[in-house]
Amino acid sequence: MTTSDAQVRARLTALVPALRGFHSALLDFAKGEYEFLHGPVKGPFELYSLVMNHEGFQWLRPLSGLMATLDEVLDAKDTTLTERNVSDVRQALGLLFSDADTRFADFRAGYTRAKGDLRVRETEAKWRELLHSLEA
Hints:
The protein is an all-alpha fold. The protein has one domain (5-133). The protein has six helices and no strands. Helix 1 packs antiparallel against helix 3 (61-75) and helix 3 (61-75) packs antiparallel against helix 4 (83-97). The protein is elongated and about 50 Å long. It starts with a helix and ends with a helix.
């Protein structure tokens, strides 16, 4: 049975808010680490600047990039989505958490620090459950 573009698009679109929630929880954790060392962040513009420029937030970039790529794929109306796209997302997320891929060691180190946070664990469980449900 072939899965239609609309079905694949709907399945991947359902994953987006769960990944955003996870990313938000990780960002809040990184902000907490920063504030512990440097004092309060004074508003959204300072936080944005820190996320873009401070080394304490750099570990989040691989996940941010993956989410941006997923958004671009979903926004491309002239592209037909297939099961290959679902497989690519599953593989990319797997690589982020795999010790075998050294490119994402900083992400995994930050994630390891953050995974004790209840919100991080809850939002991770949500996207992992959705990802598992994407299996055809």
